Structures
1.
Amino acid sequence: MTNRIALCLFAFVVILAPFLPGFPPFWIILLDNIGLAAIVAIGLVVLTGVGGLTSFGQAALAGFGAYSAAVLTTHYGWSPLATLPVALAVSAFAAFFLGFVTVRLAGHYLPLGTIAWGLALYYLFGQLELLGRHDGISSIPALTVGGFSFHEPARLHAVIWGALLLSGIATLNLLDSRVGRAIRSLRRGSTMAESFGISASYAKLTVFVYAAVLAGLSGWLYAFFQSAVTPSPFNLNSGISYLFMAVVGGAGQVWGAIAGAFIITELRDVIQRVMPALLSDSALYEPIVFGVLLIILLQVAPDGLWPLVQRLLPEPKPRPVPVHADTLAGRDMPTARGEQILKVTDATKKFGGLTAVNGVNFGVKAGEIVALIGPNGAGKSTTFNLITGVLSLSSGSVSFAGQVISGIGQRRIAGLGIARTFQHVKLLPDMSVLENVALGGHLRGRKGFLSALVRADRREEASLFAEAARQIERVGLSEHMHKPAGSLALGQQRIVEIARALTMNPSLLLLDEPAAGLRHFEKGQLSELLSQLRAEGMSLLLVEHDMGFVMGLTDHIVVLDFGTKIAEGPPDVIRKHPAVLEAYLGGAAEPAKRSDAVSGGAEA
Amino acid sequence: MTKPLLSLSNLSVSYGKVEAVRGVSLEVFAGEIVTVIGANGAGKSTLLNAAMGILPAVGEQTFDGASIGRLEVEDRVAAGLSLVSERRELFSSMSVEDNLRLGAVRFSEREAQARMAGVFDRFPRLKERRRQEAGTMSGGERQMLAMGRALMAGPKVLMLDEPSLGLAPRIVADIFTIIEDLRKSGVAILLVEQNARAALNAADRAYVMELGEITMSGKAADLANDPQIERSYLGLH
Amino acid sequence: MDLTILLFLVQDGVTNGAIYALLGFALVLVFAVTRIIFIPQGEFVAYGALTYAMLQAGHVPGTAYLLPIFALIALLFDLYAERSRITGGFLIRQGIEKIVVPLALLFAARELAGVSTIASLVLTVAIVSALGPHLYRIAFQPLADRSVLVLLIAAVGTHLALTGLGLVFFGAEGLRADALTDFSVDLGPLPVSGQNIAVYAATLLLIAGLYWFFERTVQGKALRATAVNRLGARLVGIRTKGTGKVALALAAGIGAVSGVLLAPMTTIYYDTGFVIGLKGFVAAIIGGLASYPLTAAAAITVGLIESFSSFFASDYKEVIVFTLLIPVLLVRSFTGKHTEDED
C-alpha cells in the first residue's frame, strides 16, 4: 500500500505546486510534458518491462487518442469530455487490431513489427484529408466539463497529473493481481505460463491494449494541452523516446516510468535552453545526446536508474500472509485409488527424421508413484511434454481419467488437474517465492482484468496467497517465503516449483528431476513429502537420475532408451533387468580394444 | 614429479547469486586421462567452461606453467587447450571439411591440409563424409567431428564434456577407444562423464564432484571399487 | 498507362531495388555475424552519398573529421578494456589502426578533394567503411553477449546519434552529386543511363564478391561460422570480437557504395538514409535475415512495388511499403525456427 500512498502524495504535491505564489509558468508546461510522457511510459512499463514485449510504436497509438479528440471537437462539434471514451475506445480498438497480429510475432520480429506499423501510421496520419494531412488540426477548444473550463494552465495541469495518478495506481493494482502475475510470467516463456492454464496470447493482448489505452489517454490530453494536433509528435522518434524513458527509468517499475519521463523531458528542455548559449543551433544536438546516452546507459546500467535509487530506500515490508482467508475449493480425485488415471498408448514423437519417442506404452494408477528413467537423451522429457501437451504427438494417444487429452492443448490439460515442474527451473527470479507459488493457483481464481484495476479482487487474492503459503509450508520452505526466488539454491528452486504445482491442486503431478541438486537430507525430506502426497491419493510421475531415490520411493518404474520402452515393473525387477543393465552400463563397461578403423553408425 | 600441464586451484564460478562451482582444485599432467564424475547439475560442465575461459571464474588457473586466468577463450586455444563441449557446438550448416578447416583457423592452408589428413586417418568416417553438412550427421559422427575439429588446433590438453551423451553403446565404445588412442599420441585428456563406469575404466585418475565441490579424488581404479561411489554413481547394484 | 511509362516504372523499381538489395545484404551480413538488427545502415548510405558529393565539389567532408574522433574514442575504450595486459605490439597495432590510418585519410581528403571522380569514390568508401569497426567497438562490443533486443535498442540509439551527427557535419541542406558518367544507351523507347548500369554492375559484383569471400576464404568462413555458432567459433579460436568489426566494416563499405550510386540520382539529406535503409530491411527480413538470393529478389520486388505505388497512389507510397512488412513478419514468425521466447 505504501507505494500507492507515496504516489498519491507525490501527485498531489505536483498538482498543488502551480498555486504557490511565484511558481514560474514555464515549469507548469514542463511538468505537463513530463506527466503526458509518463502516462505513455507507464503503459510501456507493463508492456515491455513486465510483459517483455518491446514496442517502438506507442507514439502512433497516442496519435489515435489525440486525433479522435481533435476530429470530434472541431469537425463534429462534440463536447471535449464526450470525446474521452471514444478516444480511449479508438486506441483500444486500434491496439486490439494491431496487437492481434503483433503479439503473434516471435522474438525480435515483434519490435520490428512495431517499427513497421509505427512508421506506416505516422505516414498515414500525414496523408489523410480528415486529419488535415501534414498541417494537422488546429483550434481545438479548451477542455470544459459542465461549463467549468480547464483552459487555465494550472487547472489543465491538475487534470494531467490526476490522470497520471490514476494510471499509476491502476497499474500498481494490475501488477499486484492474478492477471498481473500472468503478465509477469510471460517473460519466462509461454510453456510455463500455459502449463498453469494461463493463455499467453490473451495475456499479451491484454497488456498490449492496456498500454495503448494509456497512450490514447495521453494523446487525448495532449490535444487539449496543445489545442492543435500534427503528425510529428506521433512519429517513430517519439516512439523511440517513450521506450527510452522506460529503459532509462528502469523498465518494470511505475516509479521508473515517471523518473524516466522526468529525466528525458528535463534533459530535452535543458538541451534546448542551454545549448544555444554554447552553440549556434541547438536542435542539432538533441538526437546525438539521446543516442549516446541510450548506449551509455545500456552499457553501464542495463536495468535503468530507478533500481539504483531503490537500493537507497528501505526494504519494502514483505506482503503479509493473510490469516482470515476463504479456503479455495478443492478437487475430487477423478478416479478411485488403484484405478488407471493416466494411460499413454503407442506414443510416438518424430522431430524431422529423428524419432525421439517411439511407440511407448505405460500407465499410472491413482495413488501411485511411477518413475520414468533412462540415460540422457532417452526421451523422458519429451514424453513429459507429450503428456502435458507442450508437444503434439506424431501418433498414438494419451488419456487421463478415461478422457483422451492428446491434442486438447496445454491449458485444458492443466485444467483437468495435471501439474508439472520443469527440468530447467522456470521461476521468475525477481518475484518472491510466495508470488511465484501463487502463480500456480491461476486456475483456481476467477477475477479478471477490470476487477484487478479497481482492486475488487482482494478476497480472492487473500485466498490464493493463503493457499500458496500453505503449500510453501508443506514443502518446508517457509523461511524463504519472502525472498526473491532467484536467490535460492538451485535445488530449493526445484522444490519451489513443486509447491507451485501443488497450488494448482492437481490429481496428477509430473516432476522432472526433482532431486537434482539436493543434499542428502534434503532428498530424504523430498522423499517423505512425495510419499505423503501419495498417501493423500495424489498420483505422481517423475523423471529422476538418482537411482537410490527412485528405488526407495516408487511403486513402478518405466525404463526408456532411445525413445523406446525397454522394461517396466516394480523396482526389484528393474534392478536386475538385463536390458536395463545393458542400457545403463552400455558396451562401454569394457572398452573394446580395437586398433582398426572406427566406424560411426547407428543413429543417436 | 613434473609440473602439471593444466592446474586449477581454488576455482569458484557463480551464476548470479548461485555458486555452481566452489573452491575446486584439479590438475592434469602430460599423458594422463583424468575424469570428473558426478550427478547432473553437480557443476562438472561449469568447471570445464570456466577452465576454457567461457565463464568468468575466481581462483588460479595455470597452463603449461603460465597463468591463463586472464586469457580469452581464443588465447587458451592458441596456448594448447581445447574443449569439446557437451553440445558439440559444430557449425551445423557448414560442411565437415569447413568445420575441420576452421579448427585450424590460425594456420596456413598448407598446414591445415596436413592436419586434416591426420584427422581423416584417425576418423576415416569423416573423410567419407567430408562434403556433408555437419548438421545432417548422426550423433556418433557429430561427436567425432567435434573431436576432430578440436584436434585440428593441436591441443596439449583436450577437455571432453560428456562425449558419450546420447550415443548408442557401441558408438560409446568407439569413442572411448579413440580417447585411449589420443592419450597414446601424447594428448592429455580431461574427461567429464555421467557414464561413470566407462569413465573410471578409461581414466588414470578421477575426481568426484557433488553440488559444486570436489568430494573425493584418487586413482580411477580405487574409486571404481569404492562402495559409496558404487552406490551413488554406478547405480543399480 | 502506356508501355513507355510501364518500362520507366520497371526500370526505376529495379534500380532502386538493386540499391535496397545492397543494403539488405549488409543487414543480413551484420545480423548473421553479430545478431545486431542494424537500424543505422541507412546512415552509412547518407554519409556515403554526402561524403562523395562534398569531395566531388572540392570540399572536405565532415566524415573525414568524424573518423579520427571515433577512432580516438575507440582507442580509449580498448586501452581501458585491456589496461591490465597492454604490450608494445598492442600499442603499435592500436596506433596504426586508430591514429595513423584515420589521420592519413583526413590528410588525403584535404589534399584530394575535387581532384577526380575516382579519387572521390575511393576516398568515400575508405572513410565510411573505416567508421564501421570503430562504431562497433564503441557502441556494440560491450553488449556483444546481450540479447537481440538489447542490441536492437542500442542500434536505435546509434541511429539517433548518427543522424544527429550527420546534421552537424553536413548541415540540413541536401546534396546531389554529378553522375559517374554521361554514357547512355537506348533500349527501345527506354534510355538506360550509365548510372543505372553502374548500379546493376555494382550489385552483381557485390553478390559475386560476397560469394567468393564467404565460400572461398578462411576469413569469410570464420565469419559464417561465428554466425552459425558463436560459442563454437570461440572454441576453435576465432576472435569473435574481430568478426563484429569486419562485419561492420563491410556493411559500412556497402552503405558507402550505395550512397555513391544514389547520390547522382536523387538529392540526399542527412536523414534520407533511414527510410532507404528500412526498405533494405523489408527485403532482408523477407530473406529471413539469412538468405542473400531471397533478399535480392525481395529487394527488387520492394523497389517495383514502391515505383508502381508512387505512380498510382504516390501519397501512400511509404504506408504501403511499411504495411507490407507486417504480413512478412507474421509469416516469418510462424515459419522461422521456433525458440522459446525467454529473455
2.
Amino acid sequence: MITLIKRPTPSRFWSFTTPVLAVIATMIAGGVLFSILGKDPVQAIKVIFWDPLLGPNAAYFRGQLLVKAGPLILIAAGLAVGFRAGIWNIGAEGQYIMGALAGASVALAAYPAESHWLFPAMVVAGALGGWIWGMIPAVLKVLFGTSEILVSLMLVYVAQNFLAWAAFGPLKNPEGYGFPGSRNLQQYPSAHNPELFAGTGMHWGVVAALIAVIATYVLMQRHIAGFRIRVAGEAPRAARFAGVLPANLVMFCLGLSGALAGLAGMFEVSGPSGQITDSFNAGYGFTAIIVAFLGRLNAIGILLAGLLMALTYIGGDMAQLMLGLPTAAIQVFQGMLLFFLLGFDLLTHYRLRLGKGSK
Amino acid sequence: MDRRSFLKTTAATATLAAVGLPVRAADPLKIGFIYVGPVGDMGWSYQHDVARRAMEAKLGGKVVTSFIENVPEGPDAERALTQLALEGNQMIFATSFGFMEAAVNIAAKFPNVKFEHATGYKRADNLATYDARFYEGRAVQGTIAGRMTKTNKIGYIGSFPIPEVIQGINAAYIHAKKVNPDVEIKVVWAYTWFDPAKEADAAAALIAEGCDFILQHTDSTAPQAKAQEAGNVFTFGQASDMEAFKPSPRVASTIDNWAPYYIKRAQALVDGTWASESTWGGIGTGMVKIGEITDAVPAEVKAEAEELIAKIGDGSYHPFTGPLKKQDGSEWLAEGKTPEDGELAGLNFFVEGIAAEMPK
C-alpha cells in the first residue's frame, strides 16, 4: 500500500527535481515505445537529444534551436505570469496570429518604401495586435464574468479565419499569380527581421525572448506587482484583503501575455517565416503552454524548457529522417513529457509513505 | 568541423556526383523527400511516397531515398530541407505548394543540390518545378457525373481558391454541362488539403442540398464514407485510387502518378543530365491516370468517358476549348481556341454558368 500525505508546503527539492525526473522517465518510456516500433531505443534517444547539440552538422541545428525556442519562450514567459495568478490564457495561438497579421499589415501597407522606422512600427503593431486579442477575454471576464479559458481558446479559431481571409484576400501577393500568401518580407529589407549573426539563428525575436525572460524574472521575484500576482494565485482571498484588484490583475495578465504572443508572431512573420499564409501558425501558442508548465512557471525554468522542447522538435525530425520513426511516435514522445511532469508533480505536493496507512 | 567548411565538403561531394564522377562508383546517390502530410493519408502524400518507392525499386542500388513527413509549411520546411541537404542528399523533392519559399531559400544556399518543387511557379538553376494537369481528370469526372446525375446537382469540395482547384471546378462543370444542360455545380470551400472531419462536414452539407455526385479536391476518404452512408451518391477517388470504395460510391478516380517523373529525374541525376525545367504532365505523359471506371457506370457512359480520355491523351482535345465565357459573361476563349499554359496556371475566375461565388 502506498499512501499519500499532503505536504504543508510544496517541497522545494521536488519542484526542482521533478522536471529532471520527467525528462528521464520520458526517455525511458519513449525508448520502450521506439523499441516496440522496431528501432534501437538508445540510438533514437541519442539522435533526438544528442545529435542536434553535438552530432555532425550540429552547428546548423544549434542555431535552429534558437529559431524554434525563441517564440516558445517569448509566449511562455507571458503566459506564466498569468498562470501564477490563476488567470488561464489558453489562446496564445490566436494572439500570435493577430500579432503577425498586424505587423505584416503595417509592412505591406508601406511596401515598397524603405525606412528605418518601419521595423519598430511593426514591433509596436505586433504587440498591439496580440494585446487587443488578449484584452477581449480580459474585458469580457471583468464585465460579465465569462471564463477567460473558453473565450481565449475560441478566439484562436476566429483568428485562424482572419488569417485565411488575409492570406487569400487583402494581404495576398499581387504578383503571386493568384496563389494565396503575402509578399515575402525576407525580400523587403526594411521589414525583414534577419539573422543578427549569420548562422547563429539569433534574430530580434530571440533577443526579445531573452529580454522577456529577464523582465518577467525581475517582475515576479523582485517587484511588488509580482508578489501580488503570486498571492492572487495562491490565496485569492488574502490578496483581496491586501488590496489587489482582481479586475486590474486580469487585464494586466491577459494583456501582457497577449502582447508577448503578438510580438512572437510578428518576429516570426518578418523573420524565419517571411510570409503570411493560411498555415502560418505552427502551434507555438499551444506548445508554449507546455513550456510554461515544464519550466515551473519560472522565468529561468521556461528558458530551459523552451530549449528542451525545441530540441525534441528538431531531434524528432532527425529521428524521422535517420531512423524512419513516424511523426506520430515523436508527438507521443512530446506528449509523454508533459504527462510525466504532471504525474511527478504529485511528489511536490504530497509525501509518499510505503506500507499500510494508519487507520 | 564548422558549418562553412562542412557545407563546402558537402557541396564538393555533390558536385562530383552531379557531373557524373561519383566519389566511389558504387555509392548510391541520396535523394530526399519532404511531405506535408503523413504518408498514411491515402491521398496526396501517400501518392508521392508510392512514387518514391517505385523510383528506389526501379533504380535499384543507384539511389537511396529518405523522407520527412508531416512537415509544416514555413520555417520548419526550411529546416527539413536543410537537414536533407546536410545529410548529403543530392536531389530533394519538396512535395507541396506551401514549400515554395522554403525551397527557393534553401536552393540558393545549396547550389550543388538539385531541388524539385511540386506545383509551384518559382524556379532557379537548381530548382525545377513539376505539376500535373489534374483538370484533365476533372473533365472525365464531369462527363460521367453529368450523364449519371438524377438530381442535376453536382457537389464539389474545394480546398483553396487557387488556380489548380479553379481549373478543376471549371473543367468538371464544362464537361458536365456539355452532356447535361440542366446541371448545376455547388462548391463548398474546406480551406484544408486534409482534414477528415471538415471534409465529411462539407460532403454532408452538399448531400443535404441534393447533390448526388461529390467531387473532392481534398485528400481523405471521409467524403467517400459519407457518400456511402447516404446511398445513391457517387464519388471519384482523389489523388489515389481509393479502391476501398469500389464499385460504388467511387465510380472512377484521378490518380496522381508521380512515379514515371520521379524515375526520369532520378535517372537524369545518375546520368548527370539533370537540368532545371518546368514540367506540367497530364494523361498523355501518364502523370494523371484515370482509375478503373466501375460497373456502376452505364456502359455507354463508360465508353464516352474512355473516348474522352483517349482524345485528351493523344492531344486531339483540350478540356478548355472555346467558345467559353467567363462567369461575368465576358468572352474568355473564342470558338476553337485553347488557353496558353501560362494563363491556365494563373486561372482565377469561374466560367459562365457556375453560380458559386469565388471567395474574396
